[in-house]
Amino acid sequence: MPTRHRAHGFAFALALSVIFVPLAPAQTLRIGLAEDPDVLDPTLARTFVGRIVFASLCDKLFDIDEKLNIVPQLATAYEWSADNKALTLKLRPGVTFHDGEKLDAAAVKYSLERHKTMQGSNRRGELALVSTVDVIDPATVRLNLSAPFSPLLAQLADRAGMIVSPKAAQAAGDKFGANPVCSGPFKFVERVAQDRIVVERFANYWNKAEVHFDRVVYVPIPDATVRLSNLRAGQLDFIERVLPSDVPQLKIDARFKLARITELGYQGITINVGNGDAGQKNPLGRDPRVREAFELSLDRDGIVQVAMDGESTVGNQWVPPANSYYAKNMPVPKRDVARAKALLQEAGVPNPAFTLMTPTNSDQQKTAQVVQAMAREAGFDVKIQSTEFSTSLDLADKGQFEAYVLAWSGRADPDGNIYSFDACKQPLNNAGYCKPEVDAILTRARTTRDPAERQKLYEQLAAIALKDRPIIYLYHRNWLWAYTSKLGGLRTIPDGLIRVQGLKFN
Amino acid sequence: MLTFLVRRVAQIVPTLIFVSMLIFGLQQLLPGDPALVLAGEERDPTVIQHLHEKLHLDDPLPVRYGYWISGVLKGDLGESMRLQKPVLELILQKLPVTLELALLAIVIALAIGIPAGIVSAVKRNTAWDYAANAVALWGLSTPNFWLGIMLILLFSVTLGWLPASGFVSPFEDLRANLAALIMPAFVLGNAIAAVLMRHTRSAMLQVLSSDYVRTARAKGLPESRVVLQHALRNALIPVITLGALELGTLLSGAVLTEQVFTIPGFGKLIVDAVFNRDYSVVQGVVLFTATAYIVLNLFADIAYVVVNPRMRAH
Known about the structure:
- The complex is a heterodimer of chains A (506) and B (314).
- In chain A, 33% of the residues lie in helices and 22% in strands.
- Chain A has helices spanning 2-19, 48-57, 105-117, 152-156, 166-172, 224-232, 247-251, 277-280, 283-286, 288-296, 300-308, 337-347, 362-377, 389-398, 415-422, 436-447, 451-468, and strands spanning 28-33, 62-64, 70-72, 75-80, 86-91, 130-137, 140-145, 186-192, 196-201, 215-220, 238-239, 256-262, 266-271, 312-314, 353-359, 381-387, 403-408, 471-484, 487-488, 504-505.
- In chain A, strands 1, 8, 9, 10, 11, 12, 13, 14, 15, 16, 17 and 18 form a twelve-stranded mixed β-sheet that branches.
- In chain A, α11 (300-308) packs antiparallel against α13 and α16 packs antiparallel against α17.
- The radius of gyration of chain A is 26 Å and the shape is globular.
- Chain B has helices at 2-28, 34-38, 45-54, 61-73, 87-122, 127-141, 144-158, 174-208, 211-218, 223-253, 255-260, 266-275, 279-307, and strands at residues 79-80, 85-86.
C-alpha cells in the first residue's frame, strides 16, 4: 500500500509539475508613439509615425544602416544595367508572408505595380520612373526605368520597397490597411484607432533569431509629458520624440536610457521668391541681398540653444553636416550683423518688414520668435503669423506668404530633400524658385550613380541655391528616444524608425 | 404625458435638420484644402486630384451637402479618409468609452456636489458652508489637464497604484477598467461637482425659505425629512437640467482629459479629425453628439415630470 501511495503521490506531483511548468513569460514591448498613424497600407500611407509601425510589420526590398548605406532586406543583391536604366534584384529565398503565401518575384512585381497604379497611391511619385517590372525567374526581378534614377535604391528602402501579400491585397482591395499582410518580423493583430496597434511575432520570419519579443504594442500618446509619465510609471518600455527640455531629468535617472539621432530632414525658413505676387511685393523675396542679410542676422547656435534646448545639430543645407553629400564648399555661415546692415543699406531698404508664417507647433513657434529677435538687431521688422498647420500648408501652396517656417522629415537619398523643393514647378516648391541651371544639376544628380560625381554636383548646386536662398536651412532636430535600461540591442538609424529586430530585455 | 412626449419629439426633427446644415456649413469655413493635408508630406498632385474627386471637393456646397445627408439618412456617415474606416464604426468604437467615462464623472460629481450643496445650504454661514465653498472654488478653478498630470505623477509615477493612462474594456477586465478610468473621471467630475454644489446650494436656500417648508416644519416634521423629502425634491429640478447638460458636454468636451489620460474617446477622435481635415469624421461625430445632446435634454424634461408631478399639467 505505501508503495502504491507513493506511486500515486509521484503521479500527482508529476501532473502538478506538468500544469505548473514555469513557461517562459510572453514578452511584450510597449512603445509610445507621438501620433496616431494613418492607414497601415504601405501604398496609401503618408505619415512618418506610420513608418515606425511598418518597421515591424512590412519588410522592404532594402534597408539603410547607421551610415545610410543601402543594405539587403528582402533583396539580397542588386545590379544596375550598363545604361543605368534597369535594376535587377535577387530575392531572398524561402521568405513567406504572414498568410503563408510565398514571397517571390511575382509578389514583388504585384506590389510595385500596386504602388504605381492604385487609386490614391502615395508611392506613385517615388516610383514614377519605373516603367515596367519583369519577372526573370521566381527569385529575380528586373525594374525597367524610363530614365536613370539613382535615388531608386533609397526609395526601395522605404515604403515604396515594401512588399505586400498579393492574395491578401487582392482580397481586401482598398481596405488592406485594416488588416495588413506583409512579411515583417511581426504580424498584425488588432488596431483600435487612437488607442493601440498590436502586432505579434511571426513564427516563420526569415530572420527569426533576431526577434526576441512575442508582442509589440504601439500606443499613440500625443502629449510628450504624458508619454514620459507613462514611461516613468512603467506602462511603456520605450517612447519616441522626448522633449528636449525633459532630457536633463532622464539623464540622471538610472532606470532609463536616452538615445539621440540627428534626423535626415531639416528645419528651415522657406522664402517666397516667385510663387505668385506676394513674394515680389516684398524686398525679402525680391532682392537676394536682403535674403543674405536676413541669413547673416541669424545665429544658428543661439536658435538651437534657445528654441531646442541644444538638442539639434546646426546646419545650412538640405542634409546635415555629417552626411556624405553635405557640400563642404558652403559651410555654416557665421552671424555678422554689421555685414547684414551694410547689405540692407546697399539694397536701399535699411528696415525691411515681412511676415513670417509659422505653424502652431511649439518648436517652430520658438524658432520664429528667436529669429524675429535676432533679425531685429540687423534692422528687420519681422511679424510672426501663427497659423494652424493645415491652413499654413494651404497658404504656402497658394503663394500667400512671405516667409514660412517649415520642417521636412527627410529622406535617405539627398534627392528626396531637395528635388521637389528646388526644381521648377515641383509640388513642394512653395518658394516658387525656378532656375534652368539648377534644374539641370538636379536632374544630373538623380541620374548619375557614382557617389563622388553626385557629391560634386551637389556642391555645384549648393553654390547656386544657397546663395539664392529660396530656403534658409537652420538646423536638424535630434530624434530623442527614452527607454527602460533593461532594453538592449537598440540600433539608431538616421531615419528615426525603431527597428525591432535585435531588441531584447537584458 | 403622451402628448407632452409627442410634442417634444416632433420638435427634434427640424432642430436636427438645422443642426446638420450648420455642421456642414461651418466645416466648410475651415480654411485650407483638406486634400493638401490628407495627401501627406509629399503632396503628390495626382493624389490631391484623386482626393478632390473622391470627396467631391470641386462640387458646389449644396451638392456636397446632398451627398452627405443622403448617406446619413441611409445610416452611412461616410468613411474616415485618414484611417480608411467607416465613421459609424469609429463612433461605435469610441462611444462606449466616452459614455462610461462621462457617466462615472457624473456619478462622482453628483456624489460630491449634491451632499455638499445641501450641507452648505442647511448649515449656511457656518464653517461647513465655508469649507464646501472653498472646495467648490478649488474644483472650478483647477485646470483639468493640470490636475490630471498631478494625479498621474502622484498615483502612477510616485505611488504606482493606478495606471497612468490607457483604457481597458470593462468586459475584458472590470478592475483594470475602473483603475484606468477613476482618475480621469475624478478630474472631470471634480469640476462639475463644483457647479452642481453651487446650484444645489442656491436652489436649496430658496426652497428652504419658502412657505411650504415653513409649514412642514410647523407640523413638527423632523428636520431631515423637511430637508431631504420636501425641500430637496424641488431644489433638484435645476440641478437635473444642469446634470444632463453637463453629461452632453462631457460626450464631446472631455478632450483635454482624454488627451492627458490617453483615453481613446470621442474628444480625441474629433480633435484629431479637425486637425487632419478628416471632414466625414468631424461631421459624423458632431452630428452624433448634437443628436445625443438633444435626446439627453428630452430625458431631462421627462425627468422633471417624474420628479415634480406639478409639471405634468403643463
